[in-house]
Specification:
The protein has 73 residues and is mainly alpha-helical. Helices cover 71% and strands 0% of the residues. It has 4 helices and no strands.
């Protein structure tokens, strides 16, 4: 048995729980700094990109809006 395990087994139940909680905390802290490049690349691939054809509608609307005659009161 390892030295850590022997020490752990000598602790009472509440102290063992505290050790477990601390280990869980350290593991979650480690996970926050972890950067998964493969899943990031997959996520980026799913982002939609607008084509020039898609953007034409906005250009046409801009022209129409600029040609709009505003009534004066």
């Amino acid at each position: 048995m390892s030295d850590i395990q022997l020490k752990y087994e000598k602790l009472d139940f509440l102290s063992q729980k505290e050790v477990n909680d601390f280990i869980d905390f350290l593991l979650t802290k480690k996970d926050k700094n972890y950067f998964d490049l493969l899943s990031y690349k997959e996520k980026i691939k799913k982002i939609t990109v607008w084509s020039d054809e898609d953007l034409k509608v906005f250009d046409e609307n801009k022209k129409l809006f600029n040609n709009w005659n505003i009534e004066e009161w």
